[in-house]
Design brief:
By secondary structure, the chain is an all-alpha fold. It has one domain. It contains 4 helices and no strands. The protein has helices at residues 2-6, 21-36, 45-60, 64-81. Helix 2 (21-36) packs parallel to helix 4 (64-81) and helix 3 (45-60) packs antiparallel against helix 4 (64-81). It starts with a helix and ends with a helix. The model has no long low-confidence stretch (mean pLDDT 73).
Length: 82
């Protein structure tokens, strides 16, 4: 699209790679599980910070699937704190 706008036909501005969303989701899920698992069933301040970081990332990247995944973790924390 940028090439057609600039009218130069230069391929340097063209994204040719494929975006594998399932692979990206699985990678994020693996990081999330490894980093956010509560220690002895207790969420630490660092766990909560990581959950909010992942939530911010999902919103910023418009990744609805991962946002839904993270929100399920936030729901559990909200129920525990209540």
């Amino acid at each position: 699209m940028l090439n057609s706008y600039l009218g130069n036909g230069h391929p340097a501005y063209t994204h040719n790679g494929s975006s594998d969303e399932l692979a990206q989701f699985k990678l994020l899920e693996r990081f999330y599980i490894q980093l956010v698992e509560p220690i002895n069933g207790v969420y630490t301040r660092n766990n909560l910070a990581l959950i909010f970081f992942f939530s911010l990332y999902a919103v910023h990247k418009h990744n609805a699937e991962f946002n839904e995944y993270v929100s399920s973790g936030l729901e559990i924390i909200a129920l525990i704190r209540a």
